[in-house]
Amino acid sequence: MSRLCLSTALLVLLGTLVAGTPEGDDSNKDNGLRPAFCLQPPYTGPCRAMFTRYFFNAVSGLCQTFTYGGCRRKQNNFRNEKECISTCGGRNRAQ
């Protein structure tokens, strides 16, 4: 019976470890790393709309505006500064 308890405990522990592992999660900012797409330059795209969007500028460490054409969006393209900061860990311009 003690083997059964030990086996069950090990399975529960293993299940907890596996469930707690982020799968496909690019957000590493908790450990000081940013998702790789935050290092990419802004991409306007081939369309001609003129949407103001935010991107993370890896050189300055700031979330800054750029003009987005409206199609073929890349990941370093955020609707607002707050979303950019929370995803890429940048500072806002006021800091």
Can you describe what's shown?
The N and C termini lie far apart (61 Å). The protein has a domain at 26-88: Pancreatic trypsin inhibitor Kunitz domain (Factor Xa Inhibitor, Irregular). The chain has 95 residues and is an alpha+beta fold. Helices cover 27% and strands 15% of the residues. The protein has a two-stranded antiparallel ribbon with strand order 1-2. The chain has helices at 2-19, 81-88, and strands at 51-57, 62-68. The chain is elongated and about 70 Å long. Strand 1 and strand 2 form a beta hairpin. The protein has two helices and two strands, in the order H-E-E-H. Mean pLDDT is 79; it is low at 16-30.
Topology:
Layout: H1 2-19, E1 51-57, E2 62-68, H2 81-88
Antiparallel strand pairs: 1-2
